[in-house]
Amino acid sequence: MQFRARWVTLLWMRILLSNDDGVRAAGLAALAEVAGHFGEVFVVAPTEERSGFSHALTLWNPLRLRELKSNWWACDGTPADCVYLAVNQLKLEPDVVISGINPGPNLGHDVIYSGTVAAAMEGSHWGIPSIALSHLNHDPKTIEALAHQHLREVLERLIPLARTRPQTLNVNFPDVTKGPFAGMKVTKLGSRYYSSEIHERRDPRGRRYYWIGGAAVTMADIDGSDCNAVKDGHISVTPLGEDLTAHHALQELKSDLDAGLDSK
Questions:
Q1: In the predicted structure, residue 96 carries a pLDDT above the cut 50
Q2: How far apart (Å, rounded) are the C-alpha atoms in residues 172 and 230?
Q3: DSSP strand E in the chain: where?
Q4: Are strands 217-219 and 39-46 parallel, antiparallel or unpaired?
Q5: From CA 159, how far away is CA 162, in angstroms rounded?
Q6: Peptide bond connecting 128 to the previous residue in cis, omega within 30 degrees of 0
Q7: Quick one: DSSP state of residue 25?
Q8: CA-angle at 133, arms to 99 and 19, nearest 5°
Q9: Among 4-8, 188-192, 222-226, the least confident range
Q10: Which residues contact 197 (CB under 8 A, 6 or more apart)?
């Protein structure tokens, strides 16, 4: 993989890592190994897998932190809880937050549900440059190949860029087993939908329960989107902000509202 832009020398940093796959996930271990080339690494990650928890905070139950080894903590809360406690309780004062590496993509609408993305965005919420990393292949065994072949080079490019911007950079790697990457591409969010399957079953007492979340995935063909980029072999880099306002609709909505009020 070759990039045109010149390399930037990184200063030694304090790097906070988290994820939504749990503190013992292969992606987190691989990320910690590579991140150690750039600074002192701190890890605060969920005790267990917390995929799909989005940006939930635990408000009605106590949270516990357990130090597993030097600079590594397990938190029994959500990914956002982990970063919140790292910043406001442990006072780690990181220069950058990196979340991942997630086995499986976080493209398009995935970012609404993703705990991987939420951990990074919790960092940017507190003014800390943040990066979320995901890999298109769901097999955790491919994470090691991704980390050894590409991750250091990518982080050396992206960390300086993240540190000059208030947004979270959402990064998705194509499947590392499918051939060489075509480089990095700045993208917008695409459209990625899971099939709306619901599996109804009954427990031993005859009461119904449900499994939601279909396996089939549809990605719309949208030029310039993260979905198209990874499909074409590029590493997608999408800046995400906290402002969910549909700015393009503001004036139209105001005009319609004012017209309705005037008619009364």
A1: yes
A2: 7
A3: 13-18, 39-46, 65-69, 72-75, 96-103, 130-135, 168-173, 184-186, 192-194, 198-202, 208-212, 217-219, 235-240
A4: unpaired
A5: 5
A6: no
A7: -
A8: 30
A9: 4-8
A10: 212, 213, 214, 215, 216
Residue 175 and residue 143 in contact, taking contact as beta carbons nearer than 8 Å = no
Dihedral in degrees, nearest 10, Cα atoms 58, 93, 35, 230: 60
pLDDT in tens, 52-62: 899 999 999 99
If you write DSSP's letter for every residue of 2-16 in order, what string do you get?
--SSPP-PPPPEEEE
Calpha distance 60→131 (Å, rounded):
29
**Residue 249 · residue 200 · CB < 8 Å:** no
How many whole angstroms separate alpha carbon 264 and alpha carbon 50?
A: 50
Summarised one tens digit per residue, pLDDT across range 4-35 is 443 444 678 999 999 999 999 999 999 999 99
Q: What angle do CA 201, 112, 153 make, to 5 degrees?
A: 115
Structure tokens that stand for 106 in this block: 């976080």
**Which residues are 201's β-sheet partners?**
209
Please give the residue that has the higher pLDDT: either 179 or 163.
Answer: 163
Length of the chain: 264
The DSSP secondary structure of 204-262, one letter per residue, reads TTS-EEEEE--S-EEE---TTBHHHHHHTTPEEEEEE-S----GGGHHHHHHHHHHHHH
Q: pTM of whole model > 0.85?
A: yes
CB 98 within 8 A of CB 133: yes
State the Cα–Cα distance between residues 108 and 127, nearest whole angstrom: 24
